[in-house]
Amino acid sequence: MQPPAGSQVSRVPAQRTPSEQLPPAPAAPAPQTPRRRMRTVLIVVGGVLALLGVGAAITVYVLYDRATTPDRSAPDVVVDNYLRAFLVDRNDTRAELFTCETGAQLEPVKSLRAEVEDRESKFGVNVRVSWGPLTRTPSGMGESVATTLTIAGSADGVPRSSRREDWVFDVIEDGDGWRVCGGVKAA
């Protein structure tokens, strides 16, 4: 509001305090990082971590899948894997991954394993089965794979006995690879 006309207040010039007498200006605080910038940094870091986590999960899945998928790519490979699972590791569940789902004629191989286990329990020996080269031959339904099995017994690290037997395995190809459908001791 303006002072009334003719008032002495209006004619007096405004008085200011000399600058030497003013208190010093307060020191300006350091500028703070805006909240938006911090939020953006957190979002970017979170996104990168999420991508790394997804990438690691995919890598683990692929490596696990490759390690656990049975290799049925060729007749000799499937026979080798079957013999290892059934006669060496004695893992029936794993061996079934390499055999025909129906109509498999594998009784002679099962009898061989039963004989190996019987000898181990009767004589207190370790019986080890190994095989030589696997030879593929085309047959009517698929292929035959021949090999020589070596059955060796030992006790306390000392060899006790060893014998060799020629075997032939019938292998057919189904939708997801080759499978062992039969195995017999060659005459």
In summary, what is this structure?
With about 190 residues, the protein is α+β, with helices and mostly antiparallel strands. The protein has helices spanning about 10, 35-70, 75-90, 90-95, 105-125; strands at about 125-130, 135-140, 145-155, 160-175, 175-185.
Task: Write a concise keyword list for the protein shown above.
single chain; 187 residues; alpha+beta; 5-stranded antiparallel β-sheet; 5 strands; 40% helix; 26% strand
What does this structure look like?
It is a single chain. The protein is α+β, with helices and mostly antiparallel strands and 187 residues long. Helix content is 40%, strand content 26%. It has 5 helices and 5 strands; from the N terminus they run αααααβββββ. The chain has helices at residues 8-11, 35-68, 75-88, 92-96, 107-123, and strands at residues 126-131, 135-138, 143-155, 158-174, 177-185. Strands 1, 2, 3, 4 and 5 form a 5-stranded antiparallel sheet that branches. The chain is rod-shaped, with a radius of gyration of 43 Å. The relative contact order is 0.12.
Low-confidence parts, pLDDT < 50 over ≥5 residues? none
Level of helix content? Answer: 25-40%
Oligomer: single chain
- Please tell me how large the radius of gyration is: 43 Å
Q: Strand percentage, roughly?
A: 25-35%
Tally of strands: 5
Number of helices: 5
| Distance, first to last CA | 127 Å
User: Could you say which overall geometry the principal axes of the C-alpha atoms support?
Assistant: rod-shaped
Structural class designation? alpha+beta
The ordered string of helix (H) and strand (E) elements is: HHHHHEEEEE
Mean pLDDT: 88
